[in-house]
Structures are given as C-alpha cells and as structure tokens.
User: What shape does this take?
Amino acid sequence: MENKTYKKRPGRAVKKLPAVNDARNISKIECFLFDMDGTLYLGNDRLDGAKELIDLLRAQGKKALFITNNSSRVPAQYVEKLAKMDISATVDDFFTSADAIVYLLNKTNPGARIYVVGTPGFENFMADSGFELVHGYETDPAKRPEFVVLGFDTTLTYEKLRIMCDYLVDGVRYVATHPDMVCPAEGHRFIPDAGSMMLMIEGATGRKPELIAGKPNATMINILCEKLGVPKDRTAVVGDRLNTDIMSGINAGAKTVCVLSGETDLKMLETSGIVPDYIFDSVLDIFNALR
Ligand SMILES: [Mg+2]
Assistant: This one.
C-alpha cells in the first residue's frame, strides 16, 4: 500500500496526501476513540459503515469508545441516540468534555464554588460531581464563585451572559469545556457552540478561558488510555475535525485517523499543516481495511 494514490471519489485520484494508509499498521490499533458527529453520523443519520465498524472492532476484541466535546448532553442521551441508529453502547463507553473539566478542576479545586453557563444537564452533572453551584450574582465573598465554567449552552440567556461578564470583570477565574465554534445541527446546518460564546465574552470583557478541557486538549485521551491500560501507540483518535479531533490525538501522542465524511476535505488536509496518521473517506473504508 505504500505510495498508494488516494482516491477521494471513484475516478478522481488525488496525490501528495500527507499520510499513507497501511492496513497492516492500522490493524495494530487496539483502542479506537471515536468522535461522533461527522464521523459515525451526520445529525440523526448514521453514516455507512459506522455500525459495521463498531461491531467488527468489538468482535476482534478491540475497544471502541466515543469521545465528544459536546457538553450539552450527558452520556445517557448519547446511548439513546446511538441506540436509535442500532449501535449499542453503555454510558461507560462515552467520555465528554464535561468529564474532562471535572477531572481537571478536581486536580486542583475539588468541590469549588462555580458559576455555570451551560445546559441544565451540564449544571446537574457539575453538581453531582461535587461542585457547589452559585446561582445569580453574589456579592457576599463567602458565596462568590471561585470559577466561571462555560459549557455549550443551548439554554443561554442574556441574564446568564451578563452575570458571567460581571464575574469576569471582577477577576473570577474562567475555564471552559471545549473550543468548537459551531455544532452540527439537523438539515446540514450549524448552531453557535461554546467557542463562539467565548469570542462574544472576550469582546465584552477581554477575558479568555485559562483552561479549555475538551479536544484539542489531550486530557480525554490521556484519562482513557490510563483507565483502559492501553498504550498511546495502540490507541487511535478517529474524527472529522483537524483542529480538535486530530490535534487532540497528536497532543496526546496517540495515533490519528481523519475521515472525510464531516468537516474536513482534501484541500483542508493539504493546507492545514496538521498531518493525521491515516486518512479515510469514511468509517466504511476503515471497516474494509480491518475486516
Ligand atoms: Mg465531528
């Protein structure tokens, strides 16, 4: 397969791609960490090969887990979403940027008082993880938050924004779950995500988060490799975004697989300077390489 000419579409050969797919090498991967939207499905539509690949990996005794930057949903909601696509999974198969921010905050400030800008699901998750949620703008020093935590908030209100900005102007520490500018939505549309909210907040206050827990941060991959006992060179991050999915794998020192079924196209691959270890049209081609 060396120097293989990569075919984006039948009859359209594209040369000079940075990575070469070698089925003998990818078969050495023991643990696959999948991005979901753009990789396994688009909106509510399962992509060809997604179920087959997950089933094949499990039948081969390999690990298949799901990592997502989206902090607006909890794992039980993803279990349900994948079940509707006939992909079985348990809550333990998912790791989100919410898990990563909890892990990182717990290292230095377990049980901290926090002001959360996020969905009710994310607020509950943070409270269940031992953090003390502050509601509204507090002037009592004993009740004020030690951190403002920004997640992907599909329930954002102007009041929350104003309170967050007040705390940031006061100098309260500021962390965020993930940097994605947009989130894929139904009908091939996009909705503003946490990264876009960060830009608005920065415009108003001049503040940027001191820590962003999700991809491209390597935290999710590091935690999972340790938990599963899998070496980094036998672990691959599979995703459709270069600046989050692929960079998280590179930052973790793991292998990376870019699929062209979502955000990234060949032109982006050639010009981004980010080089995945493997490039496939879709998960169907990974399935075909591994079976
Ligand atoms: Mg994606």
